[in-house]
Amino acid sequence: MGSRAVVVACRDEGAARRRFGVVDEGTGIVHTRTGRRFFEDAALERELLGILGHALEQSGFWERHSTDWAVLDCELMPWSAKAQALIREQYAAVSIASAGALPEAVSALAATAARGIDVGALRERYAMREVLAARYTAAWERYGWPVSSVADLRLAPFHVLASEGAVHVDRDHAWHMAEAEAICAADPRGVLLATAHRTVDLADPASEAEATLWWEEMTERGGEGMVVKPSSFVVRGARGLVQPAVKCRGRDYLRIIYGPEYTLPEHLDRLRMRGLGAKRSLALRELALGIEGLERFVRGEPLRRVHECVFGVLALESEPVDPRL
To answer: Is 229 left (phi over 0), alpha (psi -120 to 50) or beta?
Structure first.
């Protein structure tokens, strides 16, 4: 699991100044999904951009697209590189509290049972809670590791959002994945990571079964899950835009989101009652505004026109949404 990152990469400092203004005398910038600067360490950011820039050069990206800049949609790992406070204050806190309380409760109930008092159901429940808390801890620890240098980072590009003269939403996802794979293959240091993916024929049950098995095996090994997308980047149906992506997370990853005990029947029943309409509506509107903002930038419209779309997305991000989604 990583953090969503939007990377603006330029061929050289001159290209960065010409197209984006001075970007700290560097060759680009890494943003969070809400437009904030991703790295506090400017040297680490420059080194990562240098690795990406070299891979773009070696893969022939600049010549292939007649550009000296690109905007890439990426996942940056580990998660702990950006979410230290969240890990410390939320996930680690739950793990520490559980590790301190639940074993003692199980031990006390065992002693009570030894005195001939019937606490079988309660003892069984607390023993299960102890097991689930351990799985929760193992789940979030899997996605964090120490970062002491750029070699500890992994950047996984999965969309080429824009380059000179083009916003690449007219390309299907197979094209985007092929471009990402070519870029990652040109990085000998292994910092750039190609994203595993499958193309599924929905008219072929065997193809669906193969994708399902792939997901099950991946998540059983502790993988985060997969994102299901239509083949085309933008799809319109009878009711307008089709949902651009649906996240299908694994059981252990969902434990991080919903809590250690979310798989207990009473919690699953509650979660099934969630309303998804507002979340879907926000996702579609953010997609439309994001594409419009990129198109305005590529056309060279005034910055205020680009910012209209950016501020629209940020306003949508501030809308209250069910935190369990």
So the answer is: beta
